[in-house]
Structure formats: C-alpha cells, structure tokens
Design brief:
Layout lengths: L11 H22 L1 H8 L4 H28 L6 H14 L7 H11 L6 H22 L4 H9 L1 H6 L4 H30 L2 H28 L6 H15 L10 H12 L5 H19 L1 H23 L9
Helix pairs in contact: 2-13, 3-4, 3-6, 3-10, 3-13, 4-5, 4-14, 5-6, 6-10, 6-11, 10-11, 10-13, 11-12, 12-13
Length: 324
C-alpha cells in the first residue's frame, strides 16, 4: 500500500472503534476534571484571542497550500495558485472526517487529476508533501527534549513503562514496516525534487511557517488559560502528539489528538489537565473552522466529477441520452 492508498473496507471498523474509544477516553478525562472546571477555563479566552487564533489557523493552511504549490512547480508543472488552494483546502476539510490525513490526500489527488499536467507528478508531489510535513515535525521534536527527558527519567514514568513494553514493541514494528513501505513507494518520486534542492528547501520553509502559526495559536491558548509554557516546549511536545495522531485508528484523529495532547502537556509540560483539555479542544475548534472553506471546493469537485461521468456516458456509441 502506498501512502496515498486508502485502506481497505475491512479496516473501517477499526477506525470507527478507535474513534469511539478515543472519544470515550476524552469524555472520561472531562468527567474526571468536571465540565464546570473546563468551561471556567474556556471563559478565560477573550473573543479577540479566539478570532486571532482562527486567523493563525487560516495562515497555517495557506502555508500548507504554498508547500504543495512549491513542490509541484519544482517538478516543472505550472500549477496555478488558486487551483492549489482549492484542492488543498478541499483535502484539509475532508481530513476532518476521514482516517488521519490520508483521506484528505485522496481528495486532493482526485481533484488534481482533472488539471493539466502528468498525473504521476501530482501523485508523487502529494506523497512528498506528506514526507516534508513529517520531516518538519521531526525537526521540531528536539525542542521538547528538555521537558520530556526529565519526565522519562522520573520514577513514576519508569514504573509505568514495563507493562507497556510489549504493546509498544509491537506497535513500533508495525510503524517501522509501514515506514519502509512508504519510503520505497515514494523513493522514485523523491528523485524529482532531489535534483532541485531549492524547491525542497522552499517546501520545508513552508512547513515551518505552518508549524509556527499552529504553535502560536496553541501557545496563545495556554497563555490566556493562565498556564503559559515556553513556545519551544509547545512546539516540541506537539510533534509527539502529531505522530500519535498519524496512527490510523481514528477518523480525522478525532478524540485521539485531544486525549494525547491533554496527557502529554499535563504530564510532561506541567500544565493542569483541565487547561490542557481546554487548549486541545480550542485548537480542534479553530482548525475545523479554518478548514470550512474547503467544503465549497469539495462540493465543486463532486459536481465536476458527476458532469465528467455523465459526459463519458453520453460519448459512448449507442448510449441513450442522460436525463437531466
């Protein structure tokens, strides 16, 4: 399976069950803290801060558009900015409801196949776009080490690790196998951009712009919740959350992102669980709101798809006219 291939229908129940479990864990955490405590924390967020974080979320999505646009242009395909924005926002919107971010990539690929240019280049660029995004998060991970290593060395953390070793080992084996397959499948495609390092560097810069906008929104939430943490720590710890939510056991990372972010920022970052929950829920909210323009583009893609299908039927010799 390539990184862009949607998983088979036989695995759909795993995602549904994973989403349900993650949401149940999220509800459990909320009940442990009491909803009153969380709403009290949310009340500390001024309206202008919420508006500013929506703007930051929109800017982060523009950076994602720029990253893909740079990669496609670097491969010699004259992709228009407006087409890149339309397809990227459609994919970002779809990823709210499909497993991890792969579903959004499939939507983007389906739309790009209707544009001028080699289909293979579009498919390769989307795969490389994902890899560049992952590389950006990997590069941010060391920023969280000053907080993560002392926690890892703590006696309570060490006591909690042994029962988890077997599960972690098995999960790591599956992640390693998936990574090897993914690298093999995009290795040939990556050569297009290895010969043009300036375009890869530009895409990587766009990734960091995306991350800075995202981390700024999260840091603002923590600050106005009364529990500020260093910006570098916000960035480094989120990279761990990011890789956890890549595990395809939840639809759009729903619940899984909030639970992992709440536990990581409270246990490792030192903020209260109620503040971590509130910040995670707020971040999810502003990112969903920032992706809403993609709903218009998804509808447009579906309309174009239906017209294309009807035209192909009309073009067949002897085909009856399609009623409209």
């Amino acid at each position: 399976m390539t990184p862009l291939s949607p998983a088979g229908g036989g695995r759909a129940w795993v995602r549904v069950a994973g989403t349900a479990l993650a949401l149940l864990l999220l509800i459990y955490l909320i009940r442990q803290q009491s909803w009153t405590e969380i709403t009290a924390a949310l009340a500390h967020i001024p309206g202008w801060v919420f508006a500013l974080t929506i703007l930051l979320a929109l800017l982060s999505r523009v950076a994602v558009v720029a990253r893909w646009w740079v990669l496609v242009r670097g491969a010699g395909v004259p992709l228009r900015w407006q087409d890149a924005a339309r397809l990227t926002f459609a994919g970002l919107f779809a990823s709210n409801f499909l497993p991890t971010t792969i579903g959004g990539d499939v939507v983007r690929l389906a739309g790009s196949l209707r544009l001028a240019g080699p289909a293979a280049v579009y498919a390769a660029s989307i795969a490389v776009d994902r890899l560049v995004g992952m590389a950006g998060m990997v590069s941010a991970a060391p920023l969280g080490l000053p907080a993560f290593l002392p926690w890892l060395r703590g006696a309570s953390a060490m006591l909690a690790l042994p029962p988890m070793i077997g599960g972690i080992t098995g999960a790591w084996g599956r992640v390693r196998d998936w990574t090897q397959r993914a690298l093999r499948s995009v290795g040939e495609a990556l050569r297009l951009w290895v010969r043009q390092p300036k375009w890869l560097a530009g895409a990587f810069a766009c990734t960091w712009a995306y991350m800075l906008f995202k981390f700024a929104a999260l840091a603002l939430f923590f600050h106005h919740l009364g529990e500020p943490i260093p910006f570098a720590q916000v960035a480094g710890l989120w990279s761990l959350v990011y890789f956890i939510t890549l595990v395809p056991i939840s639809i759009g990372g729903l619940g899984l992102q909030e639970v992992s972010a709440s536990l990581i920022y409270s246990q490792v970052g030192g903020v209260s669980l109620s503040a971590a929950l509130a910040a995670a829920l707020l971040l999810r909210t502003v990112e969903v709101l920032a992706s809403l323009p993609g709903a218009l583009f998804v509808s447009d893609l579906m309309t174009v798809g239906r017209r294309t299908s009807e035209a192909s039927v009309d073009a067949r010799p002897g085909s009856p006219p399609v009623s409209r």
